[in-house]
Amino acid sequence: MRKLIRHESPAGRRVNVVGAWAPFAPDGPRLVFETRRSDEGKYDAAAHLQFVERKVAELPEELPQGYCRSRPCVIVLDNYAVHHAQLVKDRIVALKAAGVSFFFIPPYSPELNLIEPIWRQVKHQDIPRRSHLSLEELQPAVVTALDRRSQVCQSTNHLDLSA
To answer: Which region holds residue 39: left if phi is over 0, alpha if psi is between -120 and 50, else beta?
Structure first.
């Protein structure tokens, strides 16, 4: 007699994460992130701008005429296609006027992006269980790991995040 084991293919079961790491923020190190399940739609240019403007730069919903942040905000980006989308390019002048600018690292240079060690820690250390049966299980595991890593990042004054 054959035993049958229920198996659901993990294909298409994905949680994408976007994040920003500000190790030298005036109020101390800060990690902000957002997760999106594959069934919630793609992370596109509009979602990217929403994340940058609201969560990272903390700009008001409607930018008043002549608004500028009290401190400049430089956002380091890799060469993900969304970062170079036309919608993003169209907002660069307005963001610059508000005190927010982008700096693109060279292609294939993840070592220049300070958030990469954080992603490595979360992916390989902070999520102990590597297999989840559903997106409904996976997303909370990712969020919990990121919340814990965010607390570690905020409590440390240096870039050693191996805790």
So the answer is: alpha
